[in-house]
Amino acid sequence: MIPVLSYRLMQAVLVALMVGVLTFVLTQALPGDMAFRIAAGRYGYDHVNAAAAAAVQAELGLGLPAWQALGQWLWDLLRLDLGNSLVSGDPVIEELRHQLGHSFTLAVAAVGLSLLLGPPLGLLAGLRPGGRLDRLTLVLATVLRALPQFVIGILLVMLLAVQLGWLPAAGHGTAAHTLLPALTLALGLAAVACRVSRNAMQGVAGSAYYAFGRTKGLSEGRVFMRHGLRNVAVPVLAHQAMQLVYLIEGVVVVETLFAWPGIGHALVHAIVARDVPMIQGTALVLGLMFVLLNALVDLLCHRIDPRRREA
């Protein structure tokens, strides 16, 4: 377990360094006047002029050489200081703390829904490969995985909010507001989880030890619980870890689409306003979230699979 944690810790350090450098370089490469965009974010486009942009540039020290500004950010990062937002003036870490809670709620709901939808259908399909359920889930999984998340979100809004009126189309604050964005994220995750579970279950159900469990007179349910569930869980969990990129990417798109006040929504607004500390902070948190979630999956697989503990 210690090598796993050491590897993930080293990965987190590299992610922090790469995210900081890349976001800084990309924001510097954006066209347009950074001081003017920041002033527009503060005062509105109708009240911005050259004098306001010059005042913002002098106040924030935007005239510093690029290498000096990047070095200052990295030094602040070593001291766990992400700086202040160039638009609001508030500490970046305080804004992220507030937004991360909303994103965490949405991510947990999405993963929970995907686990309720995908693996159970995949396990049933894997027990009868080639059956109607297997063919139906194959078609649904292919369609859902091929569609971009914003298309899935718009289709769900048109059906469940506009046509049927069951759920609110956007906003936050209640469980009903959470359901549509969470379902938008969950369908893509469930599609992959369903097919991975199906293939894993087919392999386990065709194995000699599974057949031996049946010859002992165990019921199908007890054979599955004793010899199937744990062996199926390891590949499903490992593959779900790879799909976390889909979740993190989706947070940015879905939060913007549903006006969800999370970290992805904040990232889009920070890019529009050229708020470099906020861009670096949100990108850093998203990258570290990916490393952390993968570390948790590694530990879970380590716990489930005794072969990993002996390796």
Automatic annotation (TrEMBL):
Superkingdom as given in the UniProt entry: Bacteria
GO cellular component: plasma membrane
Compartmental location: Cell membrane
UniProt-listed InterPro entries: MetI-like, MetI-like_sf
Keyword Phosphoprotein: no
Annotated membrane topology: Multi-pass membrane protein
Official protein name in the record: ABC transporter permease
Upper taxonomic lineage: Bacteria, Pseudomonadati, Pseudomonadota, Gammaproteobacteria, Aeromonadales
